[in-house]
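Researcher: I'm preparing a figure for a lab meeting and need a structural model of a single chain. I don't have an experimental structure, so a prediction will have to do for now. The sequence is pasted below. Please return the structure as tokens so I can convert it later.
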Amino acid sequence: MPTIRAAVPADLSAIGRLGAMLVRLHHEMDAARFIAATAQTAEGYAGFLGTQLEEPDALVMVAERAGVVVGYSYAGMEEEDWMTLRGPAGVIHDLVVDAAVRNAGTGRALLEATIAELERRGAPRVVLSTAARNEAAQRLFARAGFRPTMVELTRERGALTDRS
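Model: Understood. Here is the structure written out token by token.
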């Protein structure tokens, strides 16, 4: 099993690499909806998540196997949100595991640890979203007790419409 712990600055390079992998994966699923990774994506991801390490309402955790960071989660405690019609919640923004170690329990362990920490901080619920085509993630989340509550729809400018 992996070791799950709070991220530290020394983890940021690995987190940036994994964040860039997440961007590439989403872009491959739907290039019109998701941004493409660039040569700066890993550094940008690492830089942003580095700012979150000391934020009191943020949570960045890593999964390690044999001393190597192979996954991370980024979550936060959020107050009531009128835009999403949601009460206070723990919100998981990212949960990613290196493709080389998937299906070995790392994602589940990281997810459970993230949920446990959000609940320890008082989250009455935990919400997250996933790409519509990311069926493996949806299965993981369903097994952990998540249920679908929202569906995002995207329309590109100039899209054909049904005028019947």
